[in-house]
């Protein structure tokens, strides 16, 4: 456990940021999995409606540094490749 006051605060901040990062990462992964399931079930129109949400979630994760920029591009590219 941290002893100094600043170390205690740093621990609180890192926990809070870690939860926020996890939430963003899970949001991106979850929406991509939904789209994959819909495509596998041949529900293309429903999947098409979710693509902008997936792009938004992936871009937000990349913007805040949860995932890297190239990883976000790769995810979006593979998503569209699967869709087409």
Automatic annotation (TrEMBL):
Task: Name one cellular component (GO) term.
Answer: small ribosomal subunit
Q: Which UniProt keywords apply?
A: Ribonucleoprotein, Ribosomal protein, RNA-binding, rRNA-binding
| Highest taxon listed in the record's lineage | Bacteria
**What's a single GO BP term from this record?**
translation
Q: Which Pfam families match?
A: Ribosomal_S20p
Which stretches of sequence are listed as region Disordered? Answer: 1-22
Q: Which GO terms describe its molecular function?
A: small ribosomal subunit rRNA binding; structural constituent of ribosome
| Function text | Binds directly to 16S ribosomal RNA.
Q: Which NCBIfam families would you find in this protein's record?
A: S20
Q: Which family does it belong to?
A: Belongs to the bacterial ribosomal protein bS20 family.
Entry protein name: Small ribosomal subunit protein bS20
What is the organism lineage in this UniProt record?
A: Bacteria, Candidatus Tagaibacteriota
Name the gene: rpsT
């Amino acid at each position: 456990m941290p002893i100094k006051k600043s170390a205690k605060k740093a621990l609180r901040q890192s926990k809070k940021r870690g939860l926020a990062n996890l939430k963003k990462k899970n949001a991106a992964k979850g929406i991509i999995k939904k789209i994959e399931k819909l495509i596998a079930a041949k529900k293309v129109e429903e999947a098409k409606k979710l693509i902008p949400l997936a792009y938004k979630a992936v871009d937000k994760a990349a913007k805040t540094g949860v995932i890297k920029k190239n990883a976000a591009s790769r995810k979006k590219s593979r998503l569209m490749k699967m869709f087409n």
